[in-house]
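Standup notes, structure subgroup. Blocker cleared on the nicotinamide-adenine-dinucleotide input:
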Amino acid sequence: MERIGFIGLGIMGKPMAKNLVKAGYSLVVFDIVPGPVKELEAAGAKSAGNAKEVAAASDVVITMLPNSPDVREVVLGAGGVLEGARSGQVYVDMSSIDPIVAREVEAAVRKKGVVMLDAPVSGGEPKAIEGTLAIMVGGPADAFEKVQPILLKMGASAVLVGEIGSGNVAKLANQIVVALNIAAMSEALVLATKAGVDPEKVYQAIRGGLAGSTVLDAKAPMVLSRNFKPGFRIELHTKDLANALAAAHAVGSPVPLTSQAMEILQALKVDGREKEDHSSIVHFFEKLANVEVKKVS
Ligand code: NAD
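Run returned:
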């Protein structure tokens, strides 16, 4: 069994790493925050002092970091993965980053003989805990086949989408669909409330029809119970839509709905809601209609 290095033990990385330990893999972990490292040690993992040490002690290195600059720094910076890496190693970045940066990092690690896959995920914290994430992968097929058993300990599906960067293009598509779904759900539940109809009954009535979705079932209950604890933070979704706008403009594919969703997220930032779950998008529509969507007890 491969020795796995795991860097970035946040909301997503911590349960993903725990599932690999549970599956019997030998894990070496690192995060700049000590709390989750201690939790992984208690679960049976070893820890390292930096990303370089993680790479030196592993056959496969996985990162789960916030955004493109973090991945650049952790892989290419001083004390980073590349310094500890050797030829033949596989590096899998599971963060959601700009596909162009994924390609840049791949070109840099390839010079040392390291094979890189970009493999962002969808499903949020609950599916990270269950090990049922949807994983979208870019990179060479042979490396994908090699790490597929590892990916399937964290996810229910792992699909090879195309060359390096394709995983993140798929993830940007995913994030557009999710943001617009939450916005549509919010607008609809605000309308129901303003029209004097119980929004929870409306949710129950429509969830089995064409409007039903994973997003609706994950986020409507949060809105109705006024629980905006992340989950997936507004600031991370803002990052994803910024990457989506840049990637779309770079290839000449206008994204008018995404730009509207981005402005909604900007308004929520002004309201100090960046650290809340993205179900907090409902606040934007509530403000417009001067009403609050909640369970009628
Ligand atoms: P998070 O902020 O909770 O976790 C990121 C972790 O990386 C933190 O523990 C942080 O300390 C660590 N880190 C940052 N810089 C570091 C460095 N230089 N060296 C070592 N560790 C470092 O974020 P998250 O919610 O776990 O998301 C991670 C990635 O997954 C993001 O790209 C996000 O967009 C994506 N994602 C998140 C969700 C979700 O629901 N939270 C769902 C799908 C995808």
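Discussed briefly. The pocket of nicotinamide-adenine-dinucleotide is lined by residues 7-13, 30-33, 64-66, 70, 73-74, 95-96, 121-122, 124-125, 231-232, 236, 240 (CB under 6 Å).
Next: hand off to the docking folks.
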